[in-house]
Amino acid sequence: MSDISLFEAMRTQRSIRRYASDPVPDELIATIIEAATHAPSATNRQPWHFLIIRDRELKRRMGEWYVDAWSSIYPNVDPSTLPQSSRSGLELGRGMVDVPALVLVCLDISEERPTTPSLIHGASIYPVVQNIMLAARALGLGTVLTTIHRKHEQEIKKLLRIPASVETVALIPLGYPAEGERFGGGKRKPVDEVTSYDRWGQRAP
Ligand SMILES: Cc1cc2nc3c(=O)[nH]c(=O)nc-3n(C[C@H](O)[C@H](O)[C@H](O)COP(=O)(O)O)c2cc1C
Fold first, then answer.
1. In the structure, what pLDDT confidence band is assigned to residue 127 with cuts at 50, 70 and 90?
2. Is residue 166 part of a domain?
3. Which ligand 1 atom minimizes the distance to the CA of 14?
4. Cα 198 to ligand 1 centroid, rounded to whole Å
5. In this predicted model, what pLDDT tens digit does every residue of 44-61 receive, in sequence order?
6. Could you identify the atom of ligand 1 that is nearest to the CA of residue 171?
């Protein structure tokens, strides 16, 4: 087990889209999920369910849909002209079959009112998603928050037998980073630029 500090995990957790073939032990996945479920949710309903996909055929299908979704975002574009993060999205889809595990985070909206998914529902699920990625980082495992699989939401639900009242909100590949992939170095806006005190736009005294 790693003992990196929370702040180091927060500062170095970033999108990893290429993974080593080393398997991820089930115990580590269980540790990550258990830690993640300490996330907040409205009235503590904990509307989450985690579908861990390890079956090769299922990963292959997810990869195909991922590549299709990616291609519809960048139609007729030469991938080599795109920024690295966009290009590596395509690489992720193509290599998805070989990612050790995919964590499909699901949101059960059956007890939510209204039942149409909204920003407020998202607020009860994305904290657990971030916790998964931080816990994985603490264990030296790479992840990336992805959502474009939702283009194929209905097919995915059918394939994985997900109930109608459940939405898939994030597909998180999980694995040790491939050689050359690094934690940290994510570019972020300066804190001053994104923080105000007492009134919008008012800087710290
Ligand atoms: C709501 C949301 C959806 C995202 N969807 C995708 C996605 O479908 N595919 C992908 O490769 N990355 C996706 N990302 C990851 C972002 O590209 C990434 O967080 C951002 O570029 C910052 O990069 P860094 O994590 O390397 O610092 C998503 C992030 C968020 C918050």
1. very high
2. yes
3. 25
4. 31
5. 999 999 999 999 999 999
6. 8
